[in-house]
Amino acid sequence: MKKYTSKVFPRLRFNVFESTLIVTIVAFTILEALLSGKANWWASVASIAGVLSVVLTAKGHLACYFFGFIQVCLYAFVSWQSKLYGEVILHALYFMPMQFVGFVSWRKNLGQQDLVKPKNMTHQERFLWLFITIIATLLCGSLLEYLKGTAPYWDAASTVLSIIAMVLMVRAYVEQWVLWIIINLITIIMWVIALINKEPNAVVMIVMWSLFLVNAIYGYLNWIKLSKNDVE
User: Fold this and answer.
1) Helices marked H in 82-201 — which ranges?
2) Is the C-alpha dihedral spanning 98, 218, 190, 68 positive or negative?
3) What's the gap between Cα 133 and its chain centre?
4) What is the pLDDT along the chain (232 residues), one digit of tens a residue?
5) DSSP code of 2?
6) C-alpha angle 63/184/30, rounded to 5°?
């Protein structure tokens, strides 16, 4: 295999699909702000940074962690405004420091065109992580049920899957994308409920997480291709 010179931030190049995702969220954010006249600009910037982050993650590009850090900070603040305190804790205390961990880990694992080298789990690893996910979700759900939480097992599933998906992302496993797809679906439902309750930030967040879902499917397919390219 050839050796490639790594850079802190390799040159950014977007294909048509990636560019469409980015342009869509930027255009929607501006339109929503103009029409409402009372848009939360923190939520708007979080949406734009978030889409840039997940698109770059799907590409295997190191800069995903730069935009990811911005998105995580602002999303935690927006969630706090909407009284989604579980999301605040998850993003501020876990996702935020993991941006730094992920950057360092990926920097040591660059391949073609200075992009991260994805890898696949063995069957044993998949079984182990599935077992950990189920047990952790049941334990967390039982605790939330004891604390009289709303929809404790849905809440637990979202939290546990997010934590595990981030670990798999830092370790550059292709299988992370399966978890992100599930997480995006759960989070969209959560923000739809927030919209029904007339939360002002809900519309922007629903659009953002819907684009995350589309990108997660794209990321899964792209990482399969990248993992095969690095084997050759």
Assistant:
1) 85-90, 96-107, 123-146, 152-170, 176-196
2) positive
3) 18
4) 444 444 556 667 788 888 888 888 778 777 766 766 666 677 778 878 888 888 899 888 888 999 999 999 988 888 787 777 777 888 888 899 999 999 999 988 877 677 888 889 999 999 999 999 999 999 988 887 887 765 678 778 888 898 999 999 999 999 999 999 998 898 888 778 778 877 766 777 788 788 889 989 999 998 998 887 755 5
5) -
6) 65
